[in-house]
Write a structure and sequence with these properties.
The chain has 130 residues and is mainly α. It is built from 7 helices and no strands.
């Protein structure tokens, strides 16, 4: 992959880095993470997908403060961070007791709870009943 062509390329890279890291193959995980960080195609995109991946790769490279800074940027996303990306990724699990990480998880949990609470009203507005 010289340039990501679709979200599947990103998901594949994210999965490979996480699998390598989770299995303890730090050389492969760090090599792939560094490959990504060296690429010129980075952009500012307020979306959980790009920023969670960057946070993961920075974490694999032991650039913890940068990783947490990037993770906090996911809060700008209009979409919800994937629970399995955010809470189950080996690269981010090392932050599970970190208050900054916990605040990001809580941010998305509380957003989901607010929408779930409004769901019956929203469905009724569109004539949908369960």
């Amino acid at each position: 992959m010289t340039f990501p062509r679709s979200s599947l390329d990103w998901e594949g890279l994210f999965t490979l880095v996480n699998a390598s890291y989770g299995l303890g193959d730090l050389e492969t995980a760090r090599g792939l993470a560094q490959w990504y960080m060296d690429k010129p195609f980075h952009h500012e995109n307020p979306d959980y997908f790009v920023e969670t991946a960057k946070a993961c790769f920075l974490a694999v490279l032991d650039r913890d403060e940068e990783a947490l800074d990037m993770l906090e940027k996911t809060r700008r996303s209009p979409r919800f961070a994937s629970v399995n990306w955010l809470e189950d990724s080996p690269c981010l699990l090392k932050y599970s007791s970190n208050p900054r990480y916990q605040a990001v998880v809580e941010h998305f949990d509380s957003r989901r709870a607010r929408l779930r609470a409004r769901l019956p009203e929203t469905l009724a507005a569109f004539g949908v009943s369960l």
